[in-house]
Amino acid sequence: MLDHDTNDAVIALVGFGEAANAFLAGWGLGGSGRVRAFDIKTEDPATSPKMRAHYTAAGALGADTLADALEGADLVFSLVTADRALDAAQAAARTIAPGTFYLDGNSCAPTTKRTAAEAIDAAGGRYVDVAIMDAVFPKRHHTPLLLAGASADAAADVLAALDMRATVAGETVGDASTIKMIRSVMMKGMEALTAECVLAATKAGVADQVLESLGKSDQGRNWPARAAFNLERMMVHGRRRAAEMREVAKTLEALGMPSDMVQATIGWQEKVGTLGLDGGEADVAQRAGRILDEM
Length: 295
Fold this sequence. Notes:
Rossmann fold; 53% helix; N-(1-d-carboxylethyl)-l-norvaline Dehydrogenase, domain 2; alpha/beta
């Protein structure tokens, strides 16, 4: 546990994307002076002004360096992209104070998280494997989390004080991330299947008929709305999702399982994500059309 009341805890957000913003908004701590934020984009002159404005708008104290963000922090949430998660942990290990919780919420393979845990634990930090098990909007800080590791039970108590929804999955780092990684085969794979199906149907001029047929076969699901949502996830987050799926591939390979579907999902997520499109209107035809125009 913390040495003082959790209600006074200083929180560092490493990586200031969708998840960090969702948690901060849910906590209602914007402008409290208790939340610091650092994103690697701050180090790039081309993106630094926008990121600093983003910190200010959200009510977080923007840090110039990772070390500045971690100084005096009781809780560190690492919410970077999957391909930068290990780098972030190893960098944090150089300055993290003993006893500080390091909550690794990145979508990484169990092997990656164990390597990160070794670095944090060797520095005296308290590493926790965190799996974020749903989209962070609209649930924000109430998004369900799975925790694992030797400090998971203690971290669960601290997160409960922040009104978060965390469940302990196990005592070993990797117990939470294994569940998340294998679940992503289906969840991110469905997005990729949506893209391949809907884009082809749109190009053939039969999108309405295909979606209507899917609705009849899968009753209870609003396929136009779901397809629009899946496309938006790929448009806005495809590159990050591709990085996550590479970690999923590592997970399956460590189990001695093929990753054929995962490899195809990586391709589609990367293809759509690199187009640099925003979600635009919440309409499947509009989103499919914009993707096809750019492709």
